[in-house]
Amino acid sequence: MNNLVILPILIPFIIGTVLILFAKYHTLQRVISGITVFALLGISIYLAIFVYQEGILTLELGDWPAPFGIILVADMFATMMVILSSIVGLVCLFFAFQTISSEREKFFFYPFYFFLLTGVNGAFLTGDLFNLFVFFEVMLIASYILIVIGGTKYQLRESLKYVAINIFASILFIVGVAYIYAATGTLNMADLAVKVALLEQQGVLNVIAILFLIVFAMKGALFPLYFWLPRSYYGPPAAIAALFGGLLTKVGMYAIIRMFTLIFNHDPGFTHTVILILAGLTMFFGVLGAVSQFDFKRILSYHIISQVGYMVMGLGIFTPLAIAGAIYYIAHHIIVKAALFLFAGATQKLTGTTNLKEMGGILKTHPLLSWLFFISAISLAGIPPLSGFFSKFALILAGFQEERYIIVTVALIVGLLTLFSMLKIFIYAFWGEQKMTEKQAKQKVGKLLLPIVPLVILTVVLGFFAEPIFSYSLEVAEELLDPSIYINSVLKE
Amino acid sequence: MEILMSITVGVLFMVGTYLILTKSLLRVILGLMLLSHGAHLLLLTMAGLKRGAPPLLGQEAPFYADPLPQALILTAIVISFGVTAFLLVLAYRTYKEHKTDDLDKLRGTGDE
Q1: How far is B60 from chain A (nearest CA, A)?
Q2: To the nearest whole angstrom, how far is the Cα of A340 from the nearest Cα of chain B?
Q3: Please, what is the Cα angle at A219 between A262 and A423, to 5 degrees?
Q4: Is residue A73 helix, strand or coil?
Q5: What digits encode the pLDDT tens for the residues A12-39?
C-alpha cells in the first residue's frame, strides 16, 4: 500500500490537462513539459529501486480490497518498463522541440504526448484486466491524434486504417474480457491466475488465450497482424515515429508476456507452441520486408516487426533464461529503436528526404552523426560487445538448451539479414558520393544530436555492463515464472 | 433471456462483419459501431442476466444482481462513443482531402 505507484500515471495526466490551458504559449508549454519528463524519469527510477529492495508494491484504489476493487501493481517487470518509457518519453520530447512544426504544437501536441505516456504507464502498472483495456484506450486515442497531427494526405489515408484496425482489436479485447469473466467471474489478474488454475475446462481457456493473443498481437504487430505498421509509422514526423516505434508496440508485448506468464500458463504445450511459431514467422517476414525496402524510415519500421519476433520467441521457449533474454531484448530494443528513428529524423532534416537513393555522403560532412548511427545500427544487428548481442545470445542459448533448432536457425538468419539491411542504410545514406547541396551540407546537427547521444551511450552501457543488467533480467524472469509471488502480494493470502 | 441476447449479439456481429468488408468508408465505420455494440451486449450477457435486488450494501434480499458488468459496459460505451466520433471526423477529413470514400482508391499505390 503506497501512493508512489500511481505517480507515473497521475503526473503526465495532470500536466497534460494543464497544458491544454496554455495551448497558445509554446515556450511555456515546452518549459513545463521539459521539467515534467525529468521529474517522471526521477520518480520511475525511484519507484524501481523501491520495488527492487522492498518487493512488489500494490495500491488498492479507493481502499477496496483486491479482488473487488481496481488495483495498481508495481513489480520489477512493470517498473523496468516504466523507466524505459520515461527515457524514451524524455529524449523524443527534446527531439520534438527542434523538429516539430509550430502548427503541430498549436494543435495540442504536448497534451496528447503526455496522455500517451499516461496510458502507457497505466498499462504497465495496472493489475486489473478491464483497467488494462481502459489504459490501452487512453494510449490509443492519444496515439490516433499524434499519428494524424499535421494532416497531410498520406497521414490521413494511413492513419484511417490504423484507427480502424485498432478499434477492431479493442472490440475483440472486450469480447475476450466478456468470455473470461463468464468463465471465471473475476477480472483481477492475480485472482484470475488463481481461478484459471482451478478451472477444469481447459478447452475454453485455450480459446480465450488465443483470443487475447490475437488482440495483443494486433497491437504488438505480430505475424500475420503487422501489415498496418510500416505504412502508418511512415507518416508522422520522426519524433513521434520514434516514440511509437520504441514504445507503443512494446506495450502489446508487455501485455502478452504478462498474460501468458501469469494467467494463461495452464497449457504451455499448446499456447506457447503457437506463440513460438508466430515468433518465427514474425521475425522472418518482418526482416524480408526490411530487406526489400529502400527508405530509411520504412526499413526501420519493418525491423520493429522482425524484432518483436525475438521477444515473443523468448516467451515461447518459456525457460528463465529465455524470458530473461526477452526482457533484456525489450530494454535494448526500446532504446536502440528510438535512437534509430531519431537518426532518421536527423538525416531527414539534413537532406530533406528519407529515400536512400537520394541520400549519400553524410559521412564526410557530418562524421559524428554517421558513426553514432553506425554504433546503433550494429547494436541492433547484434554485434558484440553491444547490447543487441547479449540479448540475442541468451535467446539463442535458451533455444539450444530446449532443442528448438528451427527457431534458432530462423533467429540466426534474421540476425544476418538485419545486419545486411542496416549496412544498406549505412552504405547508401552515409557512404559514397555527396548528394546534398552545399547549403544542406553546411547545416549544423549538434543540437539534433543532443537527445540521441544519451540513447547511444545507453546502448553501449547495456552492452559493456551486461553482467549486472542480465542478472537483473534473470531476477525479473524468475519473478514472472513464479506467479505465486505476484498473487500473494496482490491478494495478501 | 440469455438465448435471445446471444442471438442479438450474433446478428450484430454478422451485420457488422458484412459492413466492414464493403468498399465504402462510411459503411466500414457503421460496421465497427455495430460490432462494438455487439461486444457490449456480449459483455452484459456473459455475466448472466440474473434478476435480483440492486447491489447496495445493507439491504435484505435473497440475492443481488452483479454490478460489475454494468460498470464495465458503461465504460466501454463511453470509450467507443468517443472513438467513433473521432473516426467519423477523421473519415470526413480524409474524404475532403482525397475526394473519395472508396477504399480501393484509398489503398495507395505500392509503398510510395
Answers
A1: 21
A2: 21
A3: 110
A4: strand
A5: 999 999 999 988 888 898 999 999 999 9
Rounded CA-CA distance A414/A402 in Å is: 20
Question: Which uninterrupted H or E stretch holds A74?
Answer: strand A71-74
B106 and chain A: CB distance < 8 Å anywhere?
Answer: yes
- Nearest-angstrom CA–CA distance, A485 and A2: 18
Q: Do A402 and A325 meet the contact criterion of CB atoms below 8 Å apart?
A: no
C-alpha span between A375 and A410 (Å, rounded): 24
**Alpha-carbon distances of A386 from A219, A381, A466, B32, rounded to whole Å:** 28, 9, 9, 45
Angstrom distance (rounded) from CA A372 to CA A369: 5
B6 Cα to chain A: minimum distance (Å): 13
CA distance A488 to chain B (A): 24
Asked if A298's CB is within 8 angstroms of B98's CB, the reply is no
For chain A, counts of helices (H) and of strands (E): 23, 2
A83 pLDDT band, cuts 50/70/90, is very high
Q: What are the cell numbers at A481?
A: 515464472
Cell for A358? 537520394
Q: Does the pLDDT of residue B111 top 50, yes or no?
A: no
Q: CB of A340 within 8 A of CB of A300?
A: yes
Q: In the 8-state DSSP scheme, what is residue A356?
A: G
Cell of B87: 473516426
The residue of B28, B43, B70, B102 whose CB has the most chain A CBs within 10 angstroms, and thus the best one to mutate to test that interface, is B43
Question: Which amino acid makes up residue A336?
Answer: V
Per-residue pLDDT of A267-302, as tens digits, reads 888 889 999 999 999 999 999 988 888 888 889 999
Q: What is the pLDDT of residues B12-49, one digit of tens each?
A: 999 999 999 999 999 999 999 999 999 999 998 887 77
| Range of lowest pLDDT (A345-354, A477-486, B11-20) | A345-354
The three-state secondary structure class of A295 is: strand
Which residues 73-92 of B have a C-beta within 8 angstroms of A?
Answer: 75-76, 79-80, 82-84, 86-87, 90-91
How far is the C-alpha of A427 from the C-alpha of A437, rounded, in Å? 19
- On whether the pTM is more than 0.90, the answer is yes
Predicted local distance difference test score (pLDDT) of residue B35: 95
- The verdict on B68 touching A (C-beta cutoff 8 Å) is yes
Average pLDDT of A169-191?
Answer: 91
* Contact with chain A for residue B35, Cβ under 8 A: yes
The three cell numbers of residue B19 are: 459492413
